[in-house]
Amino acid sequence: MNAENRLFLKTACNIASKTAAKAVVVHVDPLDDLEWAERFPKTRKLILITKKKRLEASGDGKDTLLGKASAVITIPRISLTRVSLIKIGATLALSQELVSPGDRLVFAVGPTESGSLDLIQSVDTSKESEIIAGKGVTKISEAVQPELFQAVFNLAVELAETGREGKPIGTAFIVGDHEKVMQLSKQMIMNPFRGYEDEERNLLAGSMKETIREFAAMDGAFVIADDGTILASGRYLGATIDESQLPRGLGSRHIAAAGITTLTRALAFVISESSGDVRIFKDGKIIMHIEKAPNKK
User: For residues 281 and 203, what is the distance between their CA atoms, to the nearest angstrom?
Assistant: First the structure.
């Protein structure tokens, strides 16, 4: 690991010590290797975030970031701004209960292609900020199992980035409390997921991404059960909410998603067709907003 990255990591650890942070979260993709012989305090967690499916460390791994890490979080394999990296890292750490609501986190991140960490950010999860859009983000694990949350989250962010056949996709995924969600919604089209075995339409199986991409171009929302089974797509959400309670400029899809999460315990993941941004709703409020990275010319 080069001297600049070592300095950034040591600085992040020092800040964590001085601010009593619960964890140091490191984006490891810019690093040329994971060698790290420095002692890491047992009172704090080291969490790594990466787009790689698997991290590997040389030697026995004891003197590496991987060997000292409490957990590794896999993030979507798309272009992300630094702020989005931090938002996603914080959201997934909370959803997987690696940290608790109210904990302070110190992030060290940087663009993968640069080979260098270049930003340190301290995040207090108890306060609403640019990173934590609403306090509902700290209650994610109460609504959806961590594995399912990450699967839907990664899928939504990847669909927002890549679209379908080069065209933007706008859709919504309503996850959890599915019986009540189905009662408060109706089919706009014939349900393409009806009649299949549960295991054939389970989002966690990992083979549904392209199928979802095809049906995401249709109007209506996906409804996903607590165990990851896709119950329906093309679903019209009957519940709405007063538009004045939401930021200006959001369309009917966002209003319906806010409404359904007001009346149920579900989470709603909404992809904006116009901007490619992803917003997560809980209890009628936006708890996370992930901006699409600008296109590079």
Answer: 20
